[in-house]
């Protein structure tokens, strides 16, 4: 892996992004495909990450409402905070979901456990808009079970007004200068990643000793933390309650709209790259509506609205090549090769190792 320089998005550049059109009002949808109303009156249950779809705020498209108006299908929309929470919920079987939007390694696991339905992409008239490099990926090599939704990298957000410039390293989360003002992820895979990168580990190591070493480092750093967080990071970083936190690059852009003092870097040790994709559950009650919904998400206007609302990199060429897209060629979301940090995907890990790190995580939280 090559060494990379840290990327920092300045307040001035960020202001330019705001003025360039993020959150502009869409007058009318210009649809590329036709959508029927033959399933009007049915219900589609969608399970997605929080803050992960354009919802009509600030003049943007309300994606679910527009789908309902177009097709007559009611969208029952529910959210989760982590892949692990989502997995636990669908395994418990309390609710039947038609569509879920997990990350790469979780999709790999769900395929292995035979929990996903196959998707015939030839029935998706907008599938040709997916950029080639996001097809035939490791977790779905034949493009049978998932359709790319968003792509991103994990980095570190910090409040420059409170703590000045920061060493562009994961080690900064352990720096005692930021005691009680630092945050870390409240999910095991991402939290372990922050320690594994410092230790130079493979994020998918099957050596139990590696996970033990990472756990010890996380325990050492726990005294420095204000809290473990997921979506709570927004409020803490936007208000200045906390000063430094790891999180997903796209969410940084959203936070910086509220607080321009927030800056961002990709740690020099490297980071996790992830792809969240749309999947259909094998026990879906409304499979045809799910396929229609996926095709709707690929519509250029819809994909652009989602990309601008969420702030993550889009796998949709209609978004990437749109010069009116407010994050067009943004250096955080679409870094040049020389500015791209070393990256690793998470892979599904065998049950024994997963149980190992899950038990270590419980121990860390109780420590």
Oligomer: single chain
Shape: globular
Strand residue percentage: 15-25%
* Main sheet characteristics: 8 strands, mixed
Total of domains: 2
Can you tell me the CATH topology of the largest domain?
Answer: D-Maltodextrin-Binding Protein, domain 2
The gist of it:
Helix content is 35%, strand content 16%.
Structural commentary:
- α6 packs across α7 and α7 runs parallel beside α13.
- The chain contains 13 helices and ten strands.
- It starts with 10 loop residues before the first helix and ends with a helix.
- It is an alpha/beta fold.
- The strands form two sheets. Strands 1, 2, 3, 4, 7, 8, 9 and 10 form an eight-stranded mixed beta sheet that branches. The protein has a two-stranded parallel sheet with strand order 5-6.
- It has two domains: 188 residues, 3-Layer(aba) Sandwich (D-Maltodextrin-Binding Protein, domain 2); 148 residues, 3-Layer(aba) Sandwich (D-Maltodextrin-Binding Protein, domain 2).
- The N terminus is likely disordered.
- The longest helix is centred in the C-terminal third of the chain and has 16 residues.
Write the layout of secondary structure elements.
Layout: H1 11-19, E1 43-49, H2 63-71, E2 74-80, H3 83-92, E3 99-100, H4 104-112, E4 147-159, H5 160-163, E5 182-185, H6 188-199, H7 208-222, E6 225-229, H8 233-239, E7 244-248, H9 249-258, E8 262-265, E9 271-280, H10 287-297, H11 300-310, H12 317-320, E10 343-344, H13 351-366
Parallel strand pairs: 1-2, 1-3, 5-6, 9-10
Antiparallel strand pairs: 3-9, 4-7, 4-8, 4-9
Helix pairs in contact: 6-7, 7-13
């Amino acid at each position: 892996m090559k060494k990379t320089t840290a990327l920092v998005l300045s307040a001035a550049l960020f202001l330019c992004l705001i003025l360039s059109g993020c959150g502009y009002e869409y007058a009318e949808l210009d649809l590329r495909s036709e959508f029927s109303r033959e399933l009007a009156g049915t219900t589609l249950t969608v399970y997605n990450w929080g803050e992960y779809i354009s919802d009509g705020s600030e003049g943007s498209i309300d994606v679910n409402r527009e789908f309902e108006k177009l097709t007559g299908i009611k969208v029952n929309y529910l959210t989760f905070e982590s892949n692990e929470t989502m997995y636990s919920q669908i395994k418990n079987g309390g609710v039947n979901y038609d569509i879920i939007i997990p990350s790469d390694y979780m999709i790999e696991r769900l395929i292995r456990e035979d929990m996903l339905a196959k998707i015939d992409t030839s029935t998706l008239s907008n599938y040709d808009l997916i950029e080639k490099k996001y097809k035939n990926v490791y977790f779905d090599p034949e493009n049978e079970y998932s359709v790319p939704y968003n792509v991103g990298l994990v980095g570190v957000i910090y409040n420059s007004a409170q703590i000045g410039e920061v060493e562009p390293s994961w080690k900064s989360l352990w720096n005692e200068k930021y005691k009680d003002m630092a945050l870390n992820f409240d999910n095991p895979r991402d939290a372990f990643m922050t320690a594994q990168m410092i230790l130079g580990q493979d994020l998918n190591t099957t050596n139990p000793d590696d996970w033990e070493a990472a756990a010890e480092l996380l325990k050492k750093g726990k005294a420095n933390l204000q809290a473990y967080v997921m979506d709570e990071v927004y409020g803490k970083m936007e208000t200045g309650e906390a000063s430094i936190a790891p999180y997903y690059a796209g969410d940084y852009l959203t936070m910086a709209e509220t607080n321009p003092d927030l800056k961002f870097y990709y740690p020099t040790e490297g980071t996790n790259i992830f792809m969240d994709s749309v999947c259909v559950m094998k026990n879906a009650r409304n499979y045809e509506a799910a396929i229609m919904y996926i095709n709707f998400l690929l519509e250029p206007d819809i994909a652009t609205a989602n990309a601008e609302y969420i702030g993550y990199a889009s796998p949709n060429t209609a978004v990437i090549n749109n010069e009116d897209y407010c994050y067009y060629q943004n250096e955080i979301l679409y870094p040049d090769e020389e500015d791209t940090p070393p990256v690793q995907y998470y892979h599904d890990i065998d049950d024994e190792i997963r149980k190992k790190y899950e038990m270590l995580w419980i121990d860390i939280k109780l420590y």
